[in-house]
Amino acid sequence: MLGLTVRWSLVDAAPDVDAELAAYVADSSYERFTGKDGLRFKTWRTRPGQWFEGCYVFASDDARAEFQRAFSDGADTAPVSQIVGSPPVLIEECDIVAVAEGGDGFLAAPRY
To answer: What is the per-residue pLDDT across 29-57, written as a single tens digit (0 to 9) for each?
Structure first.
């Protein structure tokens, strides 16, 4: 599977940025990526006060390349860049080796 990681530093961000990012994901970003053509799934990860990232897994090279090009072209003005106050520090392709679903099942949710 074809992955892409986009990471922002939170080191110099406002103290309440973690709550603002969680609200943005729940209120806007989650819906925008749910059901997106060419995307298998997306996760949003954070280490409060350190970094925030989106991890994407695409169905094809073309889907990943198209998304990466479009995102990179507007990364400086992307919603998370505006919330954090700076552009991503990392936009990196990767390969997803495997995904296992645990015994409690997969739970897709806009906020945990």
So the answer is: 999 999 999 999 999 999 999 999 999 99
Query: What CA–CA distance (Å, rounded) separates 90 from 92?
Result: 6
Report strand pairing: 51-58 vs 90-95. Answer: unpaired
**CB of 86 within 8 A of CB of 9?**
yes
CB 2 within 8 A of CB 65: no
Residue 3 pLDDT exceeds 80 = yes
- Inside any domain, residue 79: yes
Q: How far apart are CA 63 and CA 73, in angstroms?
A: 16
Q: CATH no. for residue 67?
A: 3.30.70.100
Strands, DSSP E only, in the chain? 2-9, 39-47, 51-58, 90-95
Residue 30 resides in a domain? yes
